[in-house]
C-alpha cells in the first residue's frame, strides 16, 4: 500500500509526499461491545494495512484523496467537516491542533491507500485515523507517543465523526506487537501483550455496514440506560462491566428488556475475555475456542448484533470441527473469525465454509488466513 499511496499523492498533487505512515486493521478475538462499557477486549492486528502519505498544503485547508474513488476532497478543516472517509482525516487534524501538534493555520495534503476492507468489521476507520495521526505528526516534526496517537485517533472518530466507539480499535492499531494479542482494560487503559500462537481464518461475509448507520449507537444508549438503573442498586458502579458476575439474578430483577439482555451480554463477555487471556497464556487453545462459540451465541441472542451470514459461518465452522468461531467487530454484517489447529485444517474449513455459503447465498465469502501482526509504523517516502 505504500507505493500506491505515494503514487496517488504524486498523481493528485504533482509532487512527492513529505511523510507517510501505516496502521493495521484488526480482529477482536473476544470482548465484543465491552470496550465502551469499560471492560476488557482482546484484539490482534492483522496484515491488511492503511497507508497515509502527507505533505504541506494551503493554510487551514485539507486536501485529501483516496484510492476508493480518486476524487480530491477540499475543505477548511477547522470550519467544516466533510462527509464520508474524509471526515476522519479532518477529525484527526482538529485533534492534533487541540494538542498543539499542529498550528491553527496548518494545511495538509493527504493521499490514502488501503487493503483493509471497509465495513467488514476489521476496523478500517481506526487504521485510517491512526495512520493519519502518525503521518501528520511526522509532517509537523513532532514526536507523539503511540498511546497519544491512539487517543487522538479515538477522539477524531468519537467526538468529530460521531461514532460512539470505545478505545479498542485505535489502541491495537497503535500499540500491537507481532505474534501477540493485546489485552486492553478499557476503563484504566492498562494493556498486556498476550502470546497468540493460534491460526485464524477471517471470513468476510461481504455484508457491509457503517457504524453510524447501524443500531450501534442505540446499543451504546441502552447500555448507558442499564448502567443508570443499576446504580440505584450499586451506587459506586462506574461501568457496566464492573457489575459483579455473582449478582446476575439481582441484575435480572433490576432491569427490564431489552436492557436486561444487553447488560447480561456485557457482564458475561467481560468474564469470558479475562478468562480467555489466561487460557492463551497457558496455550490452551481448545478451551479458548469454546469461549469463542459462547461469545458468538451471546452476541446473537442477547446483544442482537449478529447477522444470518455470520451465524452461518459460525455454525458451519463448528460442524466442520473448528476449535472456535465467532463474529468479530461490532456486527450487523462484516466478518467472522475461525480458530483452526493447522495449515491443512485451514484448507478443509475454507472449503466447507465456501460450500455452505454458496448454497445459501450463491457466492463465496472472502476468506483470509491471518497471524497476529504489528501496529502503526513510519513508512519511507
Number of strands: 12
Overall form: globular
Q: Strand-residue fraction?
A: 15-25%
Mean pLDDT: 95
CATH topology of the largest domain: Ribosomal Protein S5, domain 2
Number of domains as seen in the coordinates? 2
Q: How many distinct helices?
A: 11
H/E element order:
HEEEEHEHHHEEEHHHHHEEHEE
Q: Which second-level CATH architecture of the largest domain applies?
A: 2-Layer Sandwich
Using only CA atoms, what is the Rg? 21 Å
Low-confidence stretches: none
Helix content: 40-55%
> How far apart are the first and last residues' alpha carbons, in Å?
12 Å
Q: How would you classify the helix and strand content by structural class? A: alpha+beta
Classified by CATH, the class of the largest domain is Alpha Beta
Main sheet: strands, sense, barrel: 8 strands, mixed
Structural account:
There is one protein chain. By secondary structure, this protein is of the alpha+beta class. It has two domains: 194 residues, Ribosomal Protein S5, domain 2, CATH 3.30.230.10; 171 residues, GHMP kinase, C-terminal domain (Alpha-Beta Plaits), CATH 3.30.70.890. The chain has eleven helices and twelve strands. Helix 2 packs across helix 3, helix 4 packs antiparallel against helix 5 and helix 7 packs antiparallel against helix 8. It starts with a helix and ends with a strand. The model has no long low-confidence stretch (mean pLDDT 95).
Amino acid at each position: 500500500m505504500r507505493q500506491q499511496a505515494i503514487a496517488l499523492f504524486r498523481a493528485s498533487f504533482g509532487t512527492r509526499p513529505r511523510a507517510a505512515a501505516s496502521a493495521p486493521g484488526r480482529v477482536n478475538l473476544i470482548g465484543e461491545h465491552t470496550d465502551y462499557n469499560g471492560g476488557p477486549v482482546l484484539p490482534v492486528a492483522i496484515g491488511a494495512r492503511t497507508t497515509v502519505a502527507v505533505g504541506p498544503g494551503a493554510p487551514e485547508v485539507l486536501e485529501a484523496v483516496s484510492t476508493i474513488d480518486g476524487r480530491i476532497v477540499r475543505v477548511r478543516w477547522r470550519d467544516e467537516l466533510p462527509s464520508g472517509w474524509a471526515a476522519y482525516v479532518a477529525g484527526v487534524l482538529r485533534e492534533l491542533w487541540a494538542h498543539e501538534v499542529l498550528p491553527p493555520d496548518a494545511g495538509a495534503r493527504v493521499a490514502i491507500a488501503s487493503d483493509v476492507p471497509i465495513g467488514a468489521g476489521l476496523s478500517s476507520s481506526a487504521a485510517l485515523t491512526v495512520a493519519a495521526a502518525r503521518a501528520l505528526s511526522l509532517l509537523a516534526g513532532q514526536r507523539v507517543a503511540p498511546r497519544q496517537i491512539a487517543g487522538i485517533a479515538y477522539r477524531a472518530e468519537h467526538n468529530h465523526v460521531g461514532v460512539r466507539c470505545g478505545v479498542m480499535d485505535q489502541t491495537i492499531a497503535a500499540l500491537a506487537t507481532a505474534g501477540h494479542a493485546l489485552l486492553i482494560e478499557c476503563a484504566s487503559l492498562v494493556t498486556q501483550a498476550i502470546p497468540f500462537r493460534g491460526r485464524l481464518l477471517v471470513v468476510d461475509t461481504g455484508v457491509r455496514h457503517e457504524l453510524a448507520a447501524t443500531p450501534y449507537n442505540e446499543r451504546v444508549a441502552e447500555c448507558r440506560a442499564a448502567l443508570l438503573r443499576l446504580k440505584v442498586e450499586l451506587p459506586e458502579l462506574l461501568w457496566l462491566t464492573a457489575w459483579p458476575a455473582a449478582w446476575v439474578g439481582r441484575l435480572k430483577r433490576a432491569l427490564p428488556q431489552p436492557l436486561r439482555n444487553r447488560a447480561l451480554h456485557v457482564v458475561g463477555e467481560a468474564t469470558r475475555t479475562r478468562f480467555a487471556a489466561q487460557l492463551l497464556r497457558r496455550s490452551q487453545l481448545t478451551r479458548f475456542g469454546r469461549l469463542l462459540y459462547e461469545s458468538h451465541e451471546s452476541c446473537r441472542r442477547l446483544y442482537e448484533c449478529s447477522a444470518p451470514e455470520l451465524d452461518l459461518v459460525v455454525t458451519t465452522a463448528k460442524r466442520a470441527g473448528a476449535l472456535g468461531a465467532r463474529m468479530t467487530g461490532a456486527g450487523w454484517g462484516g466478518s467472522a473469525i475461525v480458530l483452526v489447529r493447522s495449515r491443512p485444517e485451514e484448507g478443509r474449513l475454507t472449503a466447507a465454509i465456501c460450500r455452505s455459503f454458496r448454497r445459501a447465498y450463491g457466492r463465496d465469502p472472502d476468506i483470509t488466513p491471518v497471524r497476529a501482526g504489528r501496529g502503526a509504523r513510519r513508512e519511507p517516502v
